[in-house]
Amino acid sequence: MAHEKNHDYHILPPSVNPLLGSLSALVMLTGAILWMHDNGPYIFLAGFVGVLYIMYAWWSEVVAESHVGDHTPVVQIGLRYGFILFIMSEIMFFSAWFWSLFKHQLYPMYEYVGTEYVKPEFHQINAFELPLINTLLLLISGCAATWAHHALVHDNNRKDLRMGLILAIAFGAVFTAFQVYEYHELLVVDGWTFSGEITFANFFMATGFHGMHVLIGTIFLLVCLIRANKGHFTPQSHVGFEAAAWYWHFP
Q1: What is the distance between the alpha carbons of residues 19 and 30, in angstroms, rounded to a whole number?
Q2: What CA–CA distance (Å, rounded) separates 1 from 152?
Q3: Rounded Cα distance, 236 and 60, in Å
Q4: Is 237 exposed, middle or buried (0-12, 13-18, 19+ CB in 10 A)?
Q5: Positive or negative, the Cα torsion across 8, 9, 15, 19?
Q6: What pTM does this model have?
Q7: Average of pLDDT values for 109-125?
Q8: Is 212 helix (H, G, I), strand (E, B) or coil?
Q9: Contact in structure between 146 and 213 (CB atoms under 8 Å)
Q10: 38-87: per-residue pLDDT in tens?
Q11: Residue 203: its pLDDT value, please?
Q12: Best exposed site among 19, 31, 73, 115 by fewest CB in 10 Å?
């Protein structure tokens, strides 16, 4: 029949979500710029709420598509490739901050003070204290996510799937709490600032975006836990959880 589907691809119906998502992101970023110029956070918050709504609406449609069988093996490959490209963009983003850190550590830009050039002062953190604890927390959390993935793919063990996700989420939440504590100590106790010196700028931008990455990943895994409790994932169809696991392993 002419109306019957004779291919493995998923032809999407027209949707307003891409347009609304782009406009919401534009409003949010414009509002952020205005906020930085002391015009208040209201435009930024309006755009942010719009972005959150589009994320929920759009991804809900993707989940519904998987339930009706639209996510064929060919479609799943496309979804995986798309998420891999997204992770590659994040790698480039964080590489830029590491590049800036190493560049200014190895080849510092001397400042002209009075009649002479002065080497900028660099501030360091003991990597074997709280940073080491947070690193171990993320590694253990990654192991828990891998355990959950293995339980789903190889055994379809729903109990171990849920337990692994719960542990991964818990360790991610503890990491975020420790990073908040670390920021408090640096800003309030040690007198660091968000601007003024290249060390502070590099540190807070890199660790701040990494902390946001972990927070988003924790929410990602929490959504997967909710879906797992509803029986959404199967050994053959679990692209959403696979994407969450990849995202979680990246930090």
Answers
A1: 17
A2: 38
A3: 20
A4: middle
A5: positive
A6: 0.87
A7: 70
A8: helix
A9: no
A10: 899 999 999 999 999 999 999 999 999 988 888 888 999 999 999 999 99
A11: 87
A12: 115
